[in-house]
Amino acid sequence: MAASVTRPALSSLCKINSNINGIYSLTSFSRRISISSVLSTSAVTTETEAAGRGVRGQRRSKRQAGEPRTERMTVDQDWTAVYPTAASFKPSAVPLPVRMGYPVKRGVPPAKKGNLELIKIPNFLHLTPVAIKKHCEALKQFCTEWPSALDSDEKCVKHFPIQVQSKEFVSAGLSLRNPDVRIVTLKVKLSSLNLDDHARKKMIKLSEERYCKDTDTLTITTDSCPLRQQNYDYAMYLLTVLYHESWKTEAWEQEKTRADMEEYEWEDSPSQKKVLDTLLRMRALGAKDEVEEGTREELLGQPAVQEYRDTMLRLKNEGETEENLQQYKEAVKKLFNI
Amino acid sequence: MASSCSQALRHHVCKSSRLLRVHLQKSWTNRSFEGAVCVSSSFALNSAADQQPAVSSPEEIVIPKKKTWSKEAVLQALASTVKRDPTASDYRFQDDPYLTPKTSSEFKLFSLSQESGRNAAKYFINTYPKYFQKDYAQPHIPCLMPDTLEAQIEEVSEAALIERIGMRKVKAAVDLYDQLLQAGTSVSLDVTNQLLDLICFYGDHDPAQENVPEQRNEETEDVQDEPQAKKGRAAKASDLLKATWKEKNNAERIFALLSEPNTHSYSALIRGMVKYGAYSKAFSTYTDLLNSRLKADVHTFNALITAAPEVKEKYNEKWELIVDLLKQMAEQKVKPNLLTLNAVLKALRRCGTVGKSQAFPVISEMKALSIDLSLASYSHLLAIFYKPGAPIQGQTDILQEVMNEVSGKSFTPQDPDDAQFFITAMRICLDTKDMEQAYRVHELLGVGENWRLLGNDFQQNIYYARFFSLLCMMENIDVMLKWYRDLVPSVYYPSSNVMRDLLQALDTDNRLDLIPQIWKDIKQLGHANRQNLVEELLTLMAREKHNQEVQESFAECALDIKKIYDTGDRGKVLLNWTAGSLSDLISVLLAAHRRQDAWDMLKLFKTHNRVPSEELLNKFLMCVKEDGDVNQAVELVQISAGFCLPGTPKLIQRVQQEFELTEQQRKMLSDLEIQSFNSE
């Protein structure tokens, strides 16, 4: 045979490929491994003398690589047949002139042949839009019809306020099991639960960091049980318990101090006392009247004080913004008739 | 706990709706895989019987019932979206240009080496099982664990006998049986029947153990007539093929020891006899069976029908014997099955004209018994009517009828002869030159699971060789090339004959410009060392004049071919020059105006002792004249004179007339003229 195979000698390019593809056994069977530089094209046969074989004077021709199959690919081929599943990058099967890597000095990034950088990274050649369309078509038969009454997001949230999420994993390896499959995440908006003010506050306090204030969502993630079903039951149980506990009022809840409060209350705050004090002092400077309980409410009832109260609440609860500070300034000025 | 929460939800949710089926188990993104029975190729998808349409009144939300499916259903559904890739080689090989096989011998070598690697690994696992006990795979994969090759139960008992039968150790089982009988324990009829089955199936030899290196010691004594050069494995294989039913073998002995043999025992014995060629004995055993007033079962009858053509000579007698057997079958109320039908049809193949007349009645009777035909039956049918090598006498309808019946159906393997259908059908299409039926046959291959029935690699090769030859003969070149690109070399590695057919097809359709591409493929397939193929290629290239581009590509191709002719790097000469091939090559080069290369080639005539033709030299002279190189013209004349060609004087005249010669050259030429004149 003209292009006959005697002993396959592998260049380092193919050695890399073969290592990745896990056929290292084949390379170990062949006793000749000749190293050629990575940048050389392997189409040229090089007559290298094997170590220890030159003695006999017989030269065996090096096996040539065939042309890569990108040459034979038509433009309108079925790409989903070339990459049906996740696979590493095969330069002989991908007809794109991709380059990757740090450019050699005054050069360009190295080409795709034998490029380890391209092989290392994950690629999504198996998930082209055409492939995804085909997969969706094939998976449609496993799906049931969407209920027609649920045609908007609001309705979905209204009728099914609890969202439960879990993940499935498919991979080929030693084991089909993936421990992350047991994790269950339960999300519910507190506005859809029947809670009064105290219950809501208590629930938020109980759930600590599981509650997100911006979206008003309580997220419970359970992974302590080994099975997903168990974790789901546990998450529902936690939700139930939270709900019922937050409706109950314990005896020691009466001892809630000012430091435990979630939001700032103006009544009985040092600010109120100070304002009263100041106003009384202002009054007292003017006329020497008796300080009575009745004047307290009267003073507090004044619109300036109310306004000051509002701005104070706004500042403390919402944070300091330009606007808030402006309003505070106005309120203080009005209070002191400046 | 969960229920109270659900209560709360329900309160919240069902304000105005009457019927709400809120599945607490159901969440939007959850899917549970319930293990249902999985039919091999299609998955079981049970949609709910009362699945309500999701269209409901505005207030009522109807949740449809969840579907269940088997474990592999999703993966199978996704796999069904993947079609064949025409540029990729077989799935077994690594997808790398260096590592995919390019010729058919490489294909065989690589696939065998893969298998042998696997066997070597299996051997190690089974020989040292204590190192391979740890189980990494989840869920457990039993076939990857080490097999137990040695029998566990040591004491002489029936359980040990059953174990050895299960492990297919024929000799050990027979020895143990004898020991049991000597010890006086009686062995039950069932176990004895199993033992008889084992012996008759393997013909009293141990089955070849693939993973164990053959023991040469005991075996070689039995096979003394085998040449010693044969390795152990080859000797065993040929042993089995030529294995015959020995005279006094264990099966008969044990059978004789049975006090009350039943149908199963007779059946085992008869089937073993038929399998290993003792046909007349099989029939005598059958007569014994009838005499002891037992009924035979369907397997016995199948075996006897298979044996019938062997015991009788004339067609009529064979057919009568088969009919007799079928009648007895009916009497004994044994229902025939598919294998019966196939056995009858196979026997009819050897019954000549009787076969042709009786085939269809047999089929219709069997159909009345609701036996569906398998591909093997169709294969036998085709073989009955289309004998290889016989002239076709207007029987083309049968193939068409068969294809009508068979198209679009997916068959499962039910008979070992199923694999013959496709190559038989393709042979018939080739003989009858029927392209349409060939396409239908090929289409059938793509339906469902039928690709499994194409047979092993060798049969696949035959099938595609026939298909290709037919295509080359019948179809025009575009269709041919389309199939060529689709199938070569991913599925089929054509032989050099097929490549010649392809070249002829190119010639017929006047597409000789594709020759350089075909040459590249020929080189890759490893046919570049076939003398006649290369010479034919050169002849085709040199025959006519084409336009400039094509000539250029031809010239490149020609130079490439020249490299093959040169001595290879091992000092081995692969191809020999002939006068014809040299002339063709030079003409091609000349047509592309590669004068220098052509001139070098001309020198080769002398070195390889070939004589150039006059025509070639004339052509060369014309080319030289275009360039006006006088010296070369003179040299040409000298070469011609050197070969003492009869056309030399004419050549000299031409040179003298058409070229401007110096004095010296003129003198030389006149000398040559005189010389050639004198030599005539």
UniProtKB/TrEMBL annotation, chain A:
InterPro entries xref list: Ribosomal_mS35_mit (IPR019349), Ribosomal_mS35_mt (IPR039848)
One Gene Ontology molecular-function label: structural constituent of ribosome
Record-level GO cellular component terms: mitochondrial small ribosomal subunit
Example GO BP: mitochondrial translation
Annotated Small ribosomal subunit protein mS35 mitochondrial conserved domain residues: 177-248
Region (Disordered): 49-72
Protein name: Mitochondrial ribosomal protein S35
Species of provenance: Cyprinus carpio (Common carp)
Top-level taxonomy: Eukaryota, Metazoa, Chordata, Craniata, Vertebrata
TrEMBL record, chain B:
Localization in the cell: Mitochondrion
Keyword RNA-binding: yes
Chief localization: mitochondrion
PROSITE patterns: PPR
GO cellular component terms, A-Z: mitochondrion; ribonucleoprotein complex; ribosome
Record InterPro entries: PPR_rpt (IPR002885), PTCD3 (IPR037387), Rib_mS39_PPR (IPR055063), TPR-like_helical_dom_sf (IPR011990)
UniProt keyword Repeat present: yes
Coiled coil ranges: none
Any one biological process term the GO annotation gives: mitochondrial translation
GO MF terms, alphabetically ordered: ribosomal small subunit binding; rRNA binding
Basic and acidic residues: bias regions: 209-218
Domain of life: Eukaryota
PPR repeats: 262-296
Chain spans, region Disordered: 209-233
Keywords: Mitochondrion, Repeat, Ribonucleoprotein, Ribosomal protein, RNA-binding, rRNA-binding, Transit peptide, Translation regulation
Family membership: Belongs to the mitochondrion-specific ribosomal protein mS39 family.
Record protein name field: Small ribosomal subunit protein mS39
Species of provenance: Cyprinus carpio
